[in-house]
Amino acid sequence: MTLKAQFDHTNCGECPIRHRAVCAHCERDELKELENIKYYRSFEAGQTIIWSGDPMNFVGSVVSGIASLTQTMEDGRTQMVGLLLPSDFVGRPGRETAPYDVVATTDLVMCCFRKHPFEDMMVKTPHIAQRLLQMTLDELDAAREWMLVLGRKTAREKIASLLSIIARRDASLHHSGMAGPIVFDLPLTREAMADYLGLTLETVSRQISALKKDQVITLESKRHVTIPDMGRLMEEAGDDTDGGFLV
Amino acid sequence: MTLKAQFDHTNCGECPIRHRAVCAHCERDELKELENIKYYRSFEAGQTIIWSGDPMNFVGSVVSGIASLTQTMEDGRTQMVGLLLPSDFVGRPGRETAPYDVVATTDLVMCCFRKHPFEDMMVKTPHIAQRLLQMTLDELDAAREWMLVLGRKTAREKIASLLSIIARRDASLHHSGMAGPIVFDLPLTREAMADYLGLTLETVSRQISALKKDQVITLESKRHVTIPDMGRLMEEAGDDTDGGFLV
DNA sequence: AGGGTACTTTGACCGAAATCAAATGGAAAC
DNA sequence: GTTTCCATTTGATTTCGGTCAAAGTACCCT
């Protein structure tokens, strides 16, 4: 069951996503306090929000747009290690510095809380620490699922896996059922997809073309994707687990 | 700073590792309760401790030996997603089922706690939830660091990265300083190394031979490794971060 | 409309790692 | 001792994805 499914109530103030993510019981007192310390930040596509190693003085969640967590080697090779879609949480309570770069992949709005007040609240409100533990375990599962993709899947399977994740996340946002074709816009450039999948952008492009030729997907434009048969796509991804993905 | 460094006191009863891992302040009351519900389990090399999807009714930590977390596709491709060395924690408070197989890579002793009593204690003792959150964040960082290895490093760099991690963990166990050669036994078969690195066992063998030829490492036997110059090895691994690895 | 820029596709070629296959080594069992 | 079994090494060949290069496409900006 996803995070969204567990806490999908709407009476959580003007930043509902954030509260759904943190407040397990949506109690009014906790909410009031969160309301008092929250603020919004906007970023442009391409902007780096936090540099690896820098002090990170806030936590927050994505309201709209896409952010990514990336690691870079000295010679420039980069690997995306997380994809943050709306409602995803960013931040490490109890940590001083960021362990990797956080980059706005598209224009982005985040709902933030200064770290220290948030940590104080965590101490006063055990629910929150436990909720954060659950969320972190979910992220850990997603990261490990992704290790299988990076370590053992072919380029074609990697592309199918990524499309599958984005399609599933997007479908759950739009409350559509599991039947029928799924339509969405790819929020990533070919290069960003390559960085996520451990491929080159040329290989990404070639494999997308191949999936199109084999009618696993349809492209109305470079970015606008239709998936006529989700089951077929998941076969292509080599996925036995029909769910469970979280990132 | 590693987990070990933060909690390296010795007055924690007969299962000190376990308590170092969970009890942030080593308070006597908590310890007593933990003592009452703990028990030990032994496993033989190769034994599967938990199957992915099975109910998991305990949490615990590795006392001696090595366990690994692995994911397997239908066609048999497998990816190791975590390596559990002595003092590492296993288990998901708040989760019913295991998300991947846990396998004893060597003969193994674990110190376990039934899950429900442990969860009850977690609720009563906020420290523990917060400590577990910290540990889970560490694991998440390690998993993401490993994603860079899997996605972007060459076979030679992958091998060097793995040797580097094991050497560092082993060195910290034996309290040796950072200077001088490091000697240890490889606790993994070539195949297990391959599964961890997303390679084939042949490639692992070839790259180890190559590192030996280039005198980055010395092999007294197939498994007994000497690293004359840790800095050199880390260069080979492409590591800028001279530390931080946890798994 | 024209020109610039950034993103994407496609082609030709190359190389690192996979695959297939055989030989070697080392330890336990008979 | 030698047989058996398993882990490991090494060799020959193939293949998938990377690299280098060029062309195509869409969008923005005067």
Automatic annotation (TrEMBL), chains A, B:
SMART domains, A to Z: cNMP (SM00100), HTH_CRP (SM00419)
InterPro entries per record: cNMP-bd_dom, cNMP-bd_dom_sf, Env_Response_Regulators, HTH_CRP, RmlC-like_jellyroll, Tscrpt_reg_HTH_Crp-type_CS, WH-like_DNA-bd_sf, WH_DNA-bd_sf
Coiled coil: none
Highest taxon of the lineage: Bacteria
Pfam families found in the cross-reference section: cNMP_binding (PF00027), HTH_Crp_2 (PF13545)
CDD domains: CAP_ED, HTH_CRP
KW DNA-binding (keyword) present: yes
Domain HTH crp-type: 153-231
One function term, GO molecular function aspect: DNA binding
Keyword list, A-Z: DNA-binding, Transcription, Transcription regulation
Cellular component terms (Gene Ontology): cytosol
Span of domain Cyclic nucleotide-binding: 22-91
Name of the molecule in the record: CRP/FNR family transcriptional regulator, anaerobic regulatory protein
Originating species: Ruegeria halocynthiae
Organism lineage string: Bacteria, Pseudomonadati, Pseudomonadota, Alphaproteobacteria, Rhodobacterales
